[in-house]
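Self-study notes.
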Amino acid sequence: MSVNDALLPRLLRLHCAFLLAGAVLVSLSACSDRQAAESRANVDAAVEKSKDATVSAAHKAADLADKARDNTVNYFKSPGVKEDVNSAKEALRNAGSALSSSANDTAITASVSAAIARDPELGPRQIDVASSAGTVRLSGSAPSTEARTRAEQIARTVNGVDKVDNQITVTAVN
């Protein structure tokens, strides 16, 4: 037996092993391609489902936004809300009037007090002045009936005074 004769069976077995390995590789390659195709199909299906879910969610969100807008519009159009809004507007107007009236009363009181303080006979005396809605109330003491009357006349000359309630008492000076 020659070396070639001894190697021949080994070479044939090696050749068969290569052929078998090649067949296995081709077979695995085919399986791999099939699995890859299936995986791709699964991924594509999942992507399509995600797109459908996203579109569905967007439609639901738009519907909810429309309902919320409609409910808000209906709420503000409801008679109860309109009444509440009108009540709030009226309360603000009244608060503004009260604030304005209070500011006017304070200004009138300050003006009357300053005018009386400038009078030489009444100035040194303590004459209290209070006003409310254009009515001025004078209280305190005056040295004579003429001084009492002059305090009332001074108060009447101040802008915004509609009425004077003169409660000044006359006290004789000794």
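Second protein, same conventions, sequence then structure:
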Amino acid sequence: MGTPPGTTLRYGAAALLWALALSGCTASAPRTPPTTPSPTPDSPAQICTSLVSYWVGETLKGGKWAGLDWEQKGLSNEQYAIHEDAVAAGRAEERTAGPDKALEVADRVVAQRCAAQNGATWSSENWRPPSEAGHSPR
């Protein structure tokens, strides 16, 4: 009894495919990873708008955390002033045009004021320069 015809060839082809698979060879050209552009950092005005708009929306909707104070919300004094003005504008709009329009008006107030004040970040009474952070008060 001998080996059936073609069996040796099949074993050889299978061994070759197995060796190629183990070595990581593929029939296609090597793939290069796609390049993605680096994200541009948000401007102070964009950060202000995002942060203040979020808290204004929570306040107007009566969200669970709406009652936090300005420090707990991460707002500067100027940002808190923008927050309060936007909430007042939103509530005035809500009385005549409903909650959706109130959010639109409030977002517009926030965006305009944050842009005009370049992010409104320089007024926090509690802000300390990093160089003073590690020193004890005298």
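Instructor comment on the second fold: The mean pLDDT is 79.
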